């Protein structure tokens, strides 16, 4: 019988709450603390015990998890007289599931070591939208492997798979590069949807068509619906996306990795932070395209199939779909099938160009992910595995060996007859012109 250790969770945002619920359902005693008590209240009914501060929360726990938005939040909750380290026992383990600056992690780990406390970084990725809600997340662990084996049973309750990837400080690289795949798609796919709409192609039909093509990825399948229903995804803030993109760019600077497309995406998020409130929802980066062109990409009557969309009372279907790798996601209700549409020959040509462009950008970012990971000392085979189990399915990354990159698609994009201002696509096109 597995011993049910006392566990602490500091940070009860959407992901934190989901992971705590998973542990409570398995009979683990869990203490929680969050800067905002209201964020934790929904899990009190399931047995979570409130603590008045990080020090109080961590006292007596075998495992102390942090799941916080920003590096400074992690530091504040771990360090000092009121921080969790002040009350943690020798031999206990701190597990940080946040996406943070690895230098910050190493500073805290150094102080923890002085007290005989073991540190693991364990950033979490969701394989479909907010997969932590149904234990469908993947966790990358950096740090002592024996400590990882101690906590592995717990990690496998709050995720579908966990990996020991490297020494502490290096797992953050894996999380950042998997986020890079998603955030790049978010900026580019929104602009592609605008081009489709301009050409008279219904967005819901285009969405369904892309999901069956080489351009398919979690971005279009799971996140474009939040653009279509105007919610921009209530599960995550613009501030967090911007933080991740800047951490990725800073890491590339440190490792002397060029990251050309990744830096263009970071500029898109920089622009969004200038225009909108940092606490706006992260898909709002697509509002730049809407505002610059005086358009709306909302679909009348469309509601994203998620409680994080326009309908917070949406109930996810219990039926799951499993792919050949074992990754699961909720089955989409039949009501989301797009109305029939017969594109013209010109529209078909545009559709093929847009799908080719989406696939090629996914390829470029995938290669930049390899550049970052390898520069950090992580092997390519391991990088392939963790990306496979990261933010969700992507046709290009799933079919890396047989995909044939077509750089000519950039020229096709540059020759499109459009009146739209597309900030990120224009920069990607210009980048290729400069390379010539």
Task: Describe this entry's structure for a reader.
This protein is α/β, with parallel strands linked by helices and 436 residues long. The chain has two domains: 163 residues, Rossmann fold (3-Layer(aba) Sandwich), CATH 3.40.50.720; 263 residues, N-(1-d-carboxylethyl)-l-norvaline Dehydrogenase, domain 2 (Orthogonal Bundle). Strands 1, 2, 3, 4, 5, 6, 7, 8 and 9 form a nine-stranded mixed sheet that branches. A two-stranded antiparallel sheet has the order 10-11. Strand 2, helix 2 and strand 3 form a beta-alpha-beta unit. The termini are far apart. The model has no long low-confidence stretch (mean pLDDT 93).
Sheet bearing the most strands, described?
9 strands, mixed
Binned, the helix content reads 40-55%
Outline: globular
**How many distinct folded domains?**
2
Order of helices and strands: EHEHEHEHEHEEEHEHHHHHHEEHHHHH
Question: Cα-atom Rg, whole angstroms?
Answer: 22 Å
Assigned CATH architecture of the largest domain: Orthogonal Bundle
What is the H level of CATH, i.e. the homologous superfamily of the largest domain? N-(1-d-carboxylethyl)-l-norvaline Dehydrogenase, domain 2
Share in β-strands: 5-15%
